[in-house]
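Re: the request from the purification team.
They wanted to know what the chain is likely to look like in 3D before they choose a buffer screen. I agreed to run a prediction and write the result into the notebook, where they can find it.
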Amino acid sequence: MKIALITIGQSPRIDLYNDLRDYLEKMNYIEIGVLDDYSIDEILKKLRPKPGEDFYVTRLKNGSWVKVSIDKITSELQRKIFEVEEQVDLIVLLCTGKLNVVSKKPLLSLDELLISIVSILKPKKLGVLIPEIKQYDLAYSKWSNVAEGSIVIVNYNPYGEKENILIDRLKDLKEADLVVLDCIGYTRRHAEIIKKYLDKPVVLPRTLVFSIVNDLISG
């Protein structure tokens, strides 16, 4: 089985390798970034969100990060899918945000996967980590209908902030009975810190999706 791993940022996503090497070494895959053909100046000119517009945060190949308009990046993502779908058997979207795209081939949406898992677990108080505080309303709209009870949302940018900032902000999540990390950029290290300081179960998107892909190709 040949797999397309598509990020809304730029490839290669070397930040994924340390956490996922055991999975990736077993896969026949190609890695594609929606922004691979863009310079930083072009990204800022063409894809930057307008004031008040919803956006996602993503990583560039040099390790920096950018905000991109959801509408614009979705259009670019759809174009990439059409370009690659005849070459692969499965497409995996490396983004936890809602992306309204289609494909002739099976398409694994991390957004739908996360929502399904959290819905099954039925947390009474759900903790959500997001990269930027200005994504609060978007995150609240997404998760308020999923949690059985209340939700608390905390921002921590996995691409641009140090671990001590994460530790400081965990105090706001101490009453949560489940924490979901709503960005593919969060690492196993981030999940370990949260488990250590909160002693709560954590849903980590990158290991979740790759464990499922691993089962698909191993079966």
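For the purification team: The mean pLDDT is 96.
Please add any questions underneath this entry.
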